[in-house]
Design a protein that fits this description.
Elements lengths: L2 H8 L9 H13 L5 E7 L7 H5 L2 E8 L2 H10 L5 E5 L14 E7 L8 H11 E12 L1 H5 L6 E4 L2 E3 L8 H10 L2 E9 L11 E8 L2
C-alpha cells in the first residue's frame, strides 16, 4: 500500500483514533507558527483539518493541500468557509497550486517523514513565500524514528498499515533550509505530558525566508 492509498484508508477513523503525535503537533503549531493576521497561507498536509480551522482564523486566504483525497474530503465537510481552498497535490512534484510569492505563511505538519527529497520541498517553499515569509514544520522527532516509531494504523484487528517513511535528522532540516536561503528562527522539541525526562515526540522548526 503506497502513501496515498494508506492515508485514504485511514481517513474515516483518523480523527477518532488515539494519536499522541497528531495531538501534540497540534499544540506545537499553535505555539510556534506566527499568529496572524496574514493575507494568505498554505497548509501542506491538511489531512482531516486538525490544524486547518485554526489556520483559517489567522488568514484572509488559505490553500489547504493534501495528497489524500479521502482525508481532504473529511476536512472539506467540516470546514465550508469560502476563504479556504482545498487542493489535491503531490508535493514531491512542482507546486502548481501556488504561484511565486503567494503566501506569508507556509505550514507542513507530519508530512516530511514520507518525503525522501527535502531540497525540493524547501526550494518550492522559498518560491511560494513572500520576502520575510514564515515556514513552520512539525514532524515526528527523529529520536523516535531511530527506535522504530513511524506513522501506522490498524485497518482491522491484527492488520496494521505502515505508510513508507524516511528518517530525517535535525541537521537534514536545517541544512535543507540553509541551501534554500532560509534563516532558522526557532527549533523546539515537544514531549508527552511536558515531561522533559522522556524522549521528545515532536520536532518543530520555524524558518524565515531571507529577503
Amino acid at each position: 500500500m503506497n502513501i496515498q492509498q494508506a492515508y485514504d484508508a485511514w481517513a474515516g477513523s483518523y480523527d477518532a483514533m488515539l494519536n499522541k503525535t497528531r495531538d501534540l503537533e497540534a499544540r506545537a503549531i499553535r505555539a510556534l507558527a506566527p499568529a496572524g493576521p496574514h493575507a494568505a497561507a498554505i497548509e501542506l498536509g491538511c489531512g482531516t483539518g486538525k490544524n486547518t480551522e485554526w489556520l483559517a482564523a489567522q488568514v484572509g486566504q488559505l490553500t489547504a493541500v493534501d495528497f489524500s483525497a479521502a482525508m481532504m474530503e473529511q476536512a472539506r465537510r467540516k470546514l465550508p468557509q469560502p476563504h479556504i481552498r482545498f487542493q489535491s497535490a503531490d508535493i514531491t512534484q512542482p507546486w502548481h497550486f501556488a504561484p511565486a510569492a503567494a503566501a506569508d505563511l507556509l505550514t507542513c505538519s507530519l508530512v516530511l517523514e514520507h518525503i525522501a527529497n527535502l531540497d525540493h520541498v524547501f526550494a518550492e517553499a522559498r518560491r511560494v513565500l513572500r520576502p520575510g515569509g514564515w515556514f513552520y514544520l512539525g514532524e515526528l522527532h527523529p529520536f523516535r524514528q531511530y527506535q522504530g516509531s513511524r506513522a501506522r494504523f490498524e485497518i482491522s484487528p491484527g492488520s496494521t498499515v505502515e505508510p513508507p517513511a524516511f528518517v530525517h535528522h535535525l541537521s537534514d532540516f536545517t541544512e535543507a533550509a540553509f541551501r534554500a536561503h532560509f534563516q532558522v528562527r526557532r527549533v523546539q522539541e515537544w514531549f508527552d505530558d511536558d515531561d522533559r525526562n522522556t524522549m521528545p515526540r515532536i520536532l518543530a522548526c520555524l524558518f524565515q525566508k531571507a529577503d
